Amino acid sequence: MMISVENLTKRYGAVTALDGLTFAIEPGVVGLVGANGAGKSTMIKILLGLLPATTGGARVLDLDVATDGPTIRQRVGYMPEHDCLPADMSATEFVLHMARMSGLPLTAARERTADTLRHVGLYEERYRSMGGYSTGMKQRVKLAQALVHDPGMLLLDEPTNGLDPAGRDQMLALLRRIGTEFGIPMLVTSHLLGELEQVCDHIVVVDGGRLLRSTSTADVTSASRILAIEVNERVDDLGRALHAAGLSVHPAGRQIEVELVDDSTYDIVLDTVVQLGVGLHRLERRRHRMAEIFRADPTLDPNGQNLQDSQGAPNGVAQSAAAELQQRWASTAGPGAPGTPHHDQRPDEGRQR
Ligand SMILES: Nc1ncnc2c1ncn2[C@@H]1O[C@H](COP(=O)(O)OP(=O)(O)OP(=O)(O)O)[C@@H](O)[C@H]1O
Which keywords does the record carry (predicted)? Predict the structure, then answer.
């Protein structure tokens, strides 16, 4: 097991930060997701053996956090959430210092520092003072110092915090590469479920210190029976034509979704696209999204907006918009007819990433 947690409770005076958590996770890229204050940082500090549990316990790489803290911290690389970098040092000086602190001889530490900074994507800038770095560059240095001593596992606290959408995507891709190419298992925290499900093999969801769900991502995000179609023009015409051809059609922003009945559904879609003479940009099976399990069961999701990322509109909005457009395509009046509103954006579409 990479991490196992048993009946773990942590109280700070009257505040219960973790409340009787039990779960076990195999090595891989694992996400710990929860709104701000859910208890993620507390969990990481307990796993590092830096903070004692109030009751219950945990094991990391089969070591007991209560008694084996120093060994855990030798074997695990830790990226803290907050900015902790000395402004007047360069990335090279800082990461080299951390490599030396972890016990590497000077030559090896120099080599590892250069390699690690290159892996995280810091090049010429690595000789400049970190005070002038962007948030993205600082996050990369924090990641590099966690990696430099070749740890057996990583604990990363909010590595995408403060990054713009492009920076988030780059950081997530980097983490995925570290997990798969270098084979380093990791626990990464975020308050955004949508971004963790892109890169994690397993997700643990906490809320108010309690466990909501611990699940393999593949179990939840398996392929759905929905085909997404994107064309270069005349989306409404295509929607009407597919409906007329007998398919169950739903608008989805600039895309159209149809229910996949069997292989003939693909033929109908392709024939219809050819008949209309429009350009086909994309035809693919949708995957389920993890937020759907929370939408399906509101009792699991007391802080839905936080867990659902930026797509957390209530499901009813999607349903009524879909019904309206379904009607529009079924009728001959076409778009623009009175009483046919155009808010055809489903909550899981138009993601601003
Ligand atoms: N040292 C402390 N003393 C008292 N309360 C604390 C302390 N550290 C955390 N808490 C409280 O414990 C709860 C969990 O905090 P924690 O920092 O673990 O959450 P988090 O999920 O990491 O949130 P964030 O992403 O905002 O850091 C919060 O209610 C927080 O206010």
Answer: ATP-binding, Nucleotide-binding, Transport
Residue 202 CA, ligand 1 centroid: distance in Å:
23
Residue nearest atom 7 of ligand 1, based on CA coordinates: 12
Residues found in the chain: 353
Pick the CATH number of 3-220 from 3.30.830.10, 2.20.25.90, 3.40.50.300, 3.30.300.30: 3.40.50.300
What is the distance in A from the centroid of ligand 1 to the CA of 81? 12
List, for residues 21-53, the tens digit of each pLDDT value: 999 999 999 999 998 889 999 999 999 999 999
CA of 193 to the centre of ligand 1 (A): 19
pLDDT tens digits, residue range 225-269?
889 999 999 999 999 999 999 999 998 888 899 999 998 999 999
Instruction: Give the phi and the psi of residue 150 in degrees, each rounded to 5.
Output: 55, 60
102 burial via Cβ count (<10 Å: 0-12, 13-18, 19+)? middle
Average pLDDT over residues 335-342: 34
